[in-house]
Structures are given as C-alpha cells and as structure tokens.
Amino acid sequence: MQTDNRDKCLKYVDMPRTFHHKANDINLTAKQHIRTCEKLARHYSSKKSNNPKEFEQDEWMKAFILKSADLNEKTLDLLTYMAEFLTETAVDATMLIEGAKIQDIIKDQSDAILMLQNTRDQLIKDLYDIRKNKGVTE
Fold it and tell me: Cα–chain-centroid distance for residue 5?
C-alpha cells in the first residue's frame, strides 16, 4: 500500500520530465513548420500572379501560411507555458509529499504515545485494584 501511494505521489514530480519527452517532437516539428512558412512567405511575397484565379490562389496561400505560422507560434507558447506550469506543480507536489511524510511520522508518534498512555492507565488501574483487593483480604 505504501508503494502504491509513493507511485501516486511521484507521478506529480515526474510530470515535467514526462511532458518534456512527449512534447519535444511537437516542439521540433512546430519550429520546422515556422521555418517552412518563412520560406513560403518569402516566395509568395515576390511572386506575381498572371491572372485573377492565380491571384486568388496566391492570396489564399498567403493567408494559409500566416495562419499556419501563427498556429505554430501559439503551439510553442503553449508548450513553454505548460512546461513551466508542470515544473511549478512538481515543486509544489514535492513539498506536499514532504509534508505528508512529516504528518505520517507525527501520526505514528501520536499513536505510540496514546498506546503508552492507555497501557500506563491500565497498569495504574490494575495496581489500584491489586492494592484494593489486598486491603480487603487483610
């Protein structure tokens, strides 16, 4: 049971590392897409359309490139935000785990003290009963 609780606590501490590994591929791909969008934007900025249909297609492509670059930048921002958030959460979880360990130690000590007090009280009661019974028999 103790191992199960430890595993549950550690998942919060491991979140930033796990997130980093899973998000790394997305991060690299988004940066590659941004570079590709920059190249496409340079190409389409100097391109001259020959007819209205080609002009419309070029304008659509320019809009698509801008939206794609914007989406990739927002994805990178989100990944950065989530990485920072998960790191902060892991730090908080580490402190909570330490607090829970201290609380467990205090509870164990409290239980031991209560058991000793109950044993002492029972022994004192037994001693009084023995003295009381000795006084009656004499």
Answer: 16
Q: Six-digit token pair at 95?
A: 């402190």
Separation of alpha carbons 11 and 5, rounded Å: 10
Residue in this structure with the two tokens 């927002």, named with its chain if needed = 74
Give me the phi and psi of 49, to 5 degrees please: -80, 145
pLDDT one-digit tens code per residue, 65-124: 999 999 999 999 999 999 999 999 888 888 888 888 899 999 999 999 999 999 999 999
- Tokens 């501490």 sit on residue: 13
pLDDT computed for residue 100 by the predictor: 83
Q: Count Cβ atoms below 10 Å from residue 120 Cβ, excluding itself.
A: 10
Chain position carrying tokens 């009963």: 129
pTM for this structure? Answer: 0.64
* Helix %, strand %, coil % of the chain (to 5): 95, 0, 5
